[in-house]
Design a protein that fits this description.
- Keywords: Transferase.
- InterPro entries: P-loop_NTPase, Sulfotransferase_dom.
- By secondary structure, the protein is an alpha/beta fold.
- The protein is globular and about 50 Å long.
- Strands 2-1-3-4 form a 4-stranded parallel β-sheet, with helices on both faces.
- The protein has a single domain, classed as P-loop containing nucleotide triphosphate hydrolases (Rossmann fold), CATH 3.40.50.
- It contains 15 helices and 4 strands.
- Helix 1 runs antiparallel to helix 9, helix 13 crosses helix 14 and helix 13 crosses helix 15.
């Protein structure tokens, strides 16, 4: 039985109403890890353009399934009907942990990961992009105050670490691909090639150029109305797309606490990967020392 997630933003049971297709692709993240960027990369690999198969926005072509209430749709029935009418292959967005999703061996799952320090700063800046007509979000006075509220609880959304761990534990499955944001922006051509191979999509030089150009931050900012999710001020949705800006904001004490906390949650090897990207460590049994350390913390 799947984990049930219900909060003011999501209801995981909505997935029960989605009729599975063998060609379905799931694009997942906790948040602020390159979800919209990856949706656009997948769109370009499949469709070869930013016309979105006749829909007005990327979010209509690739809806956030469990999102409720969803400003895109007048009712849940309308949303499910919309999803059922999407062309194949569908690529659907989720912010659920792995164990809250339906699992089908035929589906392809892409999960995005980013260093928590970058996630936190991006989320803090992201808060300023909320459209007050849709969301009533109380903003902290400073990033440091936000950080203290967010690190262990994920406030005002949901915790990051158990979410990431749920996907790390299944990373050896052939239909699951984990992508690190640092790799995606630092070695974009290679990561696009990995995604294309994973999806079984052939990519010649012409398609490669289109994917790179139309998934660039500059392109997506220029056409922000087509990419920003509903409920956000489009031009404010996209940040700078950079990592490491937190270095001048977090104190040595807060950084040390982060190091200790993330190792306790994920173990040393996976914590290092989440922080730095690079090669994903193989899925091995945790050492006794790591297990004990994790239980203590």
């Amino acid at each position: 039985m799947n984990l049930v997630v219900k909060n003011i933003y999501s209801d995981s049971t909505i997935w029960n109403a989605v009729n599975a297709r063998k060609t379905d692709i799931i694009i997942a993240s906790c948040y602020k890890a390159g979800t919209t960027l990856t949706q656009q990369i997948v769109n370009l690999l499949i469709n070869g353009n930013s016309e979105f198969s006749g829909y007005s926005t990327l979010q209509e072509l690739s809806p956030w399934v469990e999102h409720t209430p969803d400003p895109l749709f007048a009712s849940l029935e309308e949303k499910i009907d919309h999803i059922e009418k999407l062309p194949e292959p569908r690529f659907l967005k989720t912010h659920l942990p792995f164990d809250a999703l339906p699992y089908h061996p035929e589906w392809k799952y892409i999960y995005l990961v980013r260093d928590g320090r970058d996630v936190a700063l991006s989320l803090y800046n992201h808060n300023a992009g909320y459209d007050p007509a849709f969301w009533d979000v109380k903003l902290e006075d400073s990033f440091l105050e936000f950080w203290d509220n967010w690190l262990e609880t994920g406030r005002h959304l949901w915790p990051l670490w158990d979410h990431i761990d749920s996907w790390l534990q299944v990373r050896d499955r052939p239909n699951i691909l984990l992508i690190h944001y640092a790799n995606l922006i630092g070695d974009k051509e290679n990561e696009i090639a990995r995604i294309a191979e994973f999806l079984g999509v052939k990519m010649d030089a012409a398609k490669k150029e289109i994917v790179i150009q139309q998934s660039s931050l500059e392109y997506m900012k220029e056409y922000a109305d087509k990419f920003a999710p509903p409920g956000f001020i489009p031009k404010a949705f996209f940040g700078k797309g950079k990592n490491g800006v937190w270095k001048d904001l977090l104190t040595a004490e807060k950084l040390e606490k982060y190091e200790t906390f993330i190792i306790g949650k994920l173990g040393i090897e996976c914590a290092n990967w989440v922080k730095n990207g690079g090669s994903l460590p193989p899925l091995l049994e945790k050492t006794l020392a790591e297990a004990v350390e994790r239980d203590i913390k």
